[in-house]
Amino acid sequence: MIDAKLNARLFSAASLVRQDAVFADIGTDHAYLPIFLLKVGRISRAYATDINSGPLASARANVEAAALSDRVSFMLTDGAAALSGEGVTDYAICGMGGELIADIIERAPHLRCGEVRLILQPMSRQEHLRRYLCSHGFAIRSESYSYDGGKYYTCIMSEYVGECRELTELEALVGIEKCQFLNTGARIGYLEAKLSSLERARAGRLSSGAEDRTDIIISALRELISDVKNSKSNNGEETI
To answer: What phi, psi does 117 have (nearest 5°)?
Structure first.
């Protein structure tokens, strides 16, 4: 059951955390993720970090109210670099833009380790984050989709493998077909929202007389949506 303070967007991130993980929530804000994961017995302990003292104080108060202070450590820090050597296995970086998430990973070399799992939920520039991961030796293992507050979100689970690859335009935009996709209904909504955005932008450019070359990617995305609707073989559901 989803905790009252854990919305669908954050639940999709929680579902990707491994059992008995040492968990870090980068940019924790209210510490909802570590509190939930500790309550349901998914993780052994947690680190909650934030760049601002106000959110970190709020996180500390919530953890104290949940009687979990002995299992959560707090850090006032920018990004994940300060957690090197702390034995963290699973890192969540949620609620930020894709470029900022990529920058946080870039500044934390210890994340380039096959034993570390990254759980990343970009609010924007998802295509930038996918390209960054795959061009820097990370493999995208799965994407978990959710619908929350009138918007669709994806949460990317990635691990370092040391092999770099370049993505096609479609892969960068909506994900790599060889990975596992969770929550078919929300994924279809996510894909349709991307398609609608592309179509609106194309119509605007054409109406103003500007050049537009997005017809190929729009056609490929339409075909993908049709395929997903007709087959659920590569889709699963979130569980905790």
So the answer is: -110, 135
Residue 87 pLDDT class (50, 70, 90 cuts): very high
Query: What does the angle CA 233 – CA 235 – CA 240 come to, to the nearest 5 degrees?
Result: 140
Q: How many whole angstroms separate alpha carbon 188 and alpha carbon 226?
A: 9
Report which DSSP code applies to 78: S
Rounded to an integer, what distance in angstroms lies between the CA atom of residue 37 and that of residue 84?
22
Q: Which of 32, 28, 20, 77 shows the shortest CA–CA distance to 51?
A: 77
- DSSP helix, strand, coil percent of the chain (3-state; round to 5): 40, 25, 35
Name the strand (E) or helix (H) holding 174.
Answer: helix 169-174
Average pLDDT of the segment spanning 138-161: 97
- Confidence check: pLDDT of 215 > 50: yes
Q: How confident is the model at residue 2 (pLDDT cuts 50, 70, 90)?
A: very low
Count helices and strands (H / E) in the chain: 8, 9
